Amino acid sequence: MINLENISYKYESEYALENLEFKAKEGEKIVLLGNNGSGKSTLLKILAGLIFPSSGKYFYKENLVDKSFVKKRVKEFRKDVAILFQDPDTLLFNATVYEEVAFGIKQLGLDVDVKEIAKRFEIEHLLDKNPLKLSGGEKQKVAFCAIFATNPTLLLLDEPTANLDPKTTGWFIDFLYNLDVTTIISTHNLSLAYELGNRAIVIDESHSIIYDGDIKALFQNEQILLKANLMHKHKHKHSDVFHSHFHIHDWS
Ligand SMILES: Nc1ncnc2c1ncn2[C@@H]1O[C@H](COP(=O)(O)OP(=O)(O)OP(=O)(O)O)[C@@H](O)[C@H]1O
Ligand SMILES: [Mg+2]
């Protein structure tokens, strides 16, 4: 379904991704891990066909995804591939939550009941509200509902749980677990990563993939976790005694 051939991406003169290669099959649930600035959001934008590699090739269902492909097949491609941005405000621009969810459905001429899908996302009580006046977590849920409403084949989710409380995070994990859609999800949260997929792709600060494989095996690989800054050593306090040892970061 996805085939990345040696892609790199540069914003002006700086590399944000360097020589990435991987393939993904339909139905896979991939978790994208890496520290701030490693290139996770950039990679998701490339996969969504919003920006294009500076070098290398991206194939989606055997099609080379470049400017002319996206232009020619815009409706079909945007229906197939949905992206949830790290900042949900980027996606919200309608006057009410109802219109927000209805927007993509109308654009693509689909037969989807807005109230029905809002119910599934537990946001029916927000339908008349202005999306920009919601809390961070509510916005994230509305944005997710809006992109999900068009029934995409590939879901690209950029830090989807960043604003969610524990209960909503639990709901989100269960929702994704029961979903038969190919998903690529970025997160810093290692304990959550384990619940979100079975394959991990780790990008380090040199903007390259340093691990691609089983997520359970990644947890045993201290060297990779340290290299990707997903684990680090810091001082902290245990019953009034300061000491330091290695920690896995999962508080973000
Ligand atoms: N619009 C932009 N213009 C210039 N440089 C950018 C732009 N967006 C991102 N970058 C740079 O590209 C690199 C990768 O950024 P990206 O947002 O993909 O990282 P990320 O892994 O998603 O980080 P985070 O965990 O903080 O969300 C960073 O060095 C960043 O400074
Ligand atoms: Mg990001």
Compact overview of the structure:
The chain contains ten helices and twelve strands. The protein has helices spanning 40-47, 67-72, 74-80, 97-107, 114-120, 136-148, 166-177, 190-196, 215-219, 222-227, and strands spanning 2-11, 14-24, 29-33, 55-60, 63-64, 81-84, 154-158, 182-187, 199-203, 209-214, 231-238, 241-248. The protein is globular.
> Tally of extended strands?
12
CATH superfamily, by name, is P-loop containing nucleotide triphosphate hydrolases
Q: Alpha-carbon distance between the termini? A: 31 Å
Using the coordinates shown, work out and report the CATH topology.
Answer: Rossmann fold
Task: Give the ordered list of helices and strands.
Answer: EEEHEEHHEHHHEHEHEEHHEE
CATH architecture: 3-Layer(aba) Sandwich
Helix content: 25-40%
CATH secondary-structure class: Alpha Beta
Named once each, the bound ligands are: adenosine-5'-triphosphate, magnesium ion
Strand content: 25-35%
Low-confidence stretches: none
Major sheet strand order: 6-7-8-3-9-10
- The total domain count is 1
**How can the largest sheet be summarized?**
6 strands, mixed
